[in-house]
């Protein structure tokens, strides 16, 4: 996952309004979001190479999402799969706080990452460079491949678009969020961050939706959780060279 923007506990009807794009190499085998056969309470996509995932939710309200942190100089030898950080939280039954303590203790085993985990009572954020997780307060947030709310162009643009879209709306139509996620406009060169990958690649990665020859946005996801604990999870998975996308549309009620 390379971009998430979300409204957390700041809308009268919805606990969470979240939109996200997952960017990855097209050749990496992936399964679209579904209830997992081995853990049937988990609804998420799946990386078929390492069997982890980038974002998911359970029937009991456990939610987790991950982005990589862009720092070429901080890559380690033989790292554990970051996708398992999401996978393990969804499949286990530890509290978000206890789980993040374990993540903090073992963070050096992974390449740089950002992690969100939570349930109906809280949402926590952790970065590998931190010693402990942060509890997020109600508000609008954006997360790409740096710290949460780092003012990269795509983060600022998507947050502003989200704020404008949900303002004065009682009901949220996921299609409006998918339109934000489909924005392919590149940032201006003077706006680009410098993360050690060169200006050309920074420019290529600067749009909300990335479209390249071998790498780009693989899926777009909208997740809504209303105050009656009803979940709407919609996902569009994109196949290079094909006009149509694979659509997932799932709704269910959260249970204790």
TrEMBL record:
InterPro entries documented for this protein: TANGO2
PANTHER family named among the record's database cross-references: SER/THR-RICH PROTEIN T10 IN DGCR REGION, TRANSPORT AND GOLGI ORGANIZATION PROTEIN 2 HOMOLOG
Listed name of the protein: NRDE family protein
Organism, as annotated: Desulfosporosinus fructosivorans
């Amino acid at each position: 996952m390379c971009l998430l923007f979300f409204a957390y506990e700041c809308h009268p009807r919805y606990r969470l309004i979240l939109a996200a794009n997952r960017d990855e190499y097209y050749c990496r085998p992936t399964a679209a979001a579904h209830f997992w056969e081995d853990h049937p309470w988990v609804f998420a996509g799946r990386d078929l190479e390492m069997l982890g995932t980038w974002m998911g939710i359970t029937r009991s309200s456990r939610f987790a999402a991950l982005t990589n942190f862009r720092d070429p100089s901080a890559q380690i030898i033989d790292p554990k799969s970051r996708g398992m950080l999401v996978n393990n939280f969804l499949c286990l039954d530890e509290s978000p706080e206890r789980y993040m303590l374990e993540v903090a203790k073992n963070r050096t085993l992974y390449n740089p990452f950002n992690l969100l985990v939570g349930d109906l009572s809280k949402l926590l954020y952790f970065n590998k460079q931190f010693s402990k997780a942060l509890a997020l307060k109600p508000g609008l947030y954006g997360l790409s491949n740096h710290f949460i709310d780092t003012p990269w162009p795509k983060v600022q643009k998507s947050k502003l678009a989200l704020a404008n879209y949900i303002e004065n709306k009682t009901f949220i139509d996921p299609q409006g969020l998918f339109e934000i996620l489909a924005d392919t406009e590149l940032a201006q060169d003077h706006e680009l961050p410098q993360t050690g990958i060169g200006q050309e690649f920074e420019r290529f990665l600067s749009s909300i939706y990335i479209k390249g020859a071998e790498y780009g946005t693989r899926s777009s996801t909208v997740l809504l959780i209303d105050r009656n604990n009803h979940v709407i999870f919609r996902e569009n998975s994109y196949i290079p060279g094909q006009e149509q996308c694979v659509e997932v549309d799932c709704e269910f009620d959260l249970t204790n």
